[in-house]
Amino acid sequence: MSKQSQSSRRRFLQQIGATGMLAAAAPLSSLAAKEKAEERTLFYEKKISAGDKIRLGVIGYGVQGHFDLDTALKVPGVELAGICDLYTGRLVNAKEKFGNDLFTTRNYKELLDKSDIDAVIIATTDCWHSRITKDALAKGKAVYCEKPMVYKISEGPGVIEAQQKAGKVLQVGSQRVSSIGLAKAKELLAAGEIGKLNMVNAVYDRQSSIGAWEYTIPKDANAETTDWDKFIEVTEKMAYDSKKFFWWRAFKEVGTGVAGDLFIHLLSGTHFITNSKGPESIYGTGQFSYWKDGRNMPDVMAGVMQYGDTPEHPAFQLTLQVNFISGTGGQEVIRFVGSEGVMEVQGNNLSIKHSIMPEAPGFGGYDSLFTFSKSMQEEMQKDYDARWTAAQKQRPKKDDVTFKAPQGYSDHLDHFTNFFDAIRTGKPVVEDATFGFRAAAPALSCNESYFQKKIIKWDPVNMKLV
After folding, report:
1. Signal sequence: where (predicted)?
2. pLDDT at residue number 37
3. How far apart are CA 97 and CA 90, in angstroms?
């Protein structure tokens, strides 16, 4: 290994921290009782595969395309080979950042035709994900496709089939599934730390114009500079609209709204932690509360999903919430409620609070006992005391614990590391096409439910509408 490569490897290790789930050496029940929850740091040990150089292309160089590329280039051995975007200003931006020799194009097929490109990031408008993914796989490229993997449920099986036929790596870009925090949550749920799961409440709120997708539109935006005709090639014909191009998430003609942007993060995390294949019924509702800017996708939306009793998990309900004008200032949390406690996952951190019922049933207090005659109350009290001990009447105590990721930890970097490791070693990715579709379909079904005003039935095993 060259000195330059060794230096790059050291810098990378410093960026991502020490590594491996060493967080909880002692069982939670063995900790001494404390008034305040104990805080532990999630340590991890990330092994970087020494491997061949990977030449990377980017298709869609908007906000997420920039973030994805910046993170991907932190992985040792990854080099940028080309960028494609429809808006000319972003191609100028790419050359300003990476130099005039960088290959740029407005035609993604020209980038896919380059034999020196091994993998591509697809960070385009939702309506283009399926077509470009299939074309990239057919050209022998490994694919990192931003979520949602598909724009329509009907596109899912075709993408799965294309990946299987090509035999190339396909990873979907919901980075939380590579988080050490979610891995610890998965471990603790399986160990029964909160008892039997019965409900999950998931929230992803925002309170800003940018959070609501009102991105800055450049002064030179027009049908020519955005190649509008190409942009609408996969949609119904539409007159040029700069909002539909730059604020595309807010419009159903090209995007998938809060469901495809944020519900899908919550679904991916829930499915990873519970090992679930998905819900059986889906209901979505929404409203336009504040961002009345011409959009036709709600700025406040909720979903309710019913998960069945399966070998992977007990039956549970999932509630989803996104509020783009939330007085909380914004929050992201997935709350797993069990029979003996609650586990909250916030980003890469998690906390567990316990509440365990006593073995003895309730008696007295807010109970019908006091409405009986005095003699009946005394007789029944004696019977109760004879049957149950003082210990059985008390709630068992179990310590609360908080787990935090190391400072500077990045699940986004781990997700890309997993992607490139899979290319180099052939190991499976966490979020493959099947996982990606099983997260996308319920999210997209929330939109269908909202527009059709009905409950959507879904077969999570066979991945089809019922």
Report:
1. none
2. 64
3. 10
**Rounded to 5°, angle at Cα 465 from 459 and 466:** 75
Residue type, 233: E
What is the pLDDT at residue 277?
98
From residue 270, give the alpha-carbon distance in Å to each of 173, 174, 414: 15, 12, 19
Pairwise CA distance, residues 325 & 243, whole Å: 20
C-alpha pair distances (Å), 391 with each of 46, 359, 387, 394: 46, 9, 12, 5
Measured CA to CA in angstroms, residue 211 lies from 133, 204, 206, 207, 323 at distances of 27, 11, 6, 7, 10
Task: State the Cα–Cα distance between residues 231 and 128, nearest whole angstrom.
Answer: 9
Q: What is the mean pLDDT of each run of 10 residues along the chain (466 residues)?
A: 44 41 36 54 63 93 98 96 98 98 98 98 98 98 98 98 98 96 97 98 98 98 98 97 98 98 98 98 98 98 98 98 98 98 97 97 96 97 98 96 94 96 94 98 98 98 98
- Residue 240 CA from chain centroid, whole number: 32
Q: How far is CA 135 from CA 87, 162, 233, in A?
A: 21, 9, 15
Amino acid at 184: K
- Which pLDDT score, from 0 to 100, does residue 42 have? 80
CA 370, CA 177: separation in Å to the nearest integer? 53
Contact 311, 254 (CB under 8 A): no
In this structure, the strands spanning 281-287 and 300-307 are antiparallel
Q: What pLDDT shows up at residue 49?
A: 53
pLDDT of residue 52: 85
Residues 145 and 173: beta-carbon distance below 8 Å: yes
Question: At 316, which amino acid appears?
Answer: F
Q: Which domains does the chain have, with CATH numbers?
A: 3-176 (3.40.50.720)
DSSP characters for 233-244? GGS------HHH
